[in-house]
Amino acid sequence: MKIYAIRHTSVDVKPGICYGQSDVDVAASFFDEQKKTAQEISDVKFDEIWSSPLKRCKKLAQSLFNESKINYDHRLKELNFGDWEMLTWDEIYASPEGKIWMDNYQTLPTKNGESYPEMVERVSSFIHEIEKLNVENIAVVAHAGVIRIFKSVIENVAISELFENFKPAYASVTILELENDE
Question: What's the CATH number for 2-177?
Answer without folding.
Answer: 3.40.50.1240
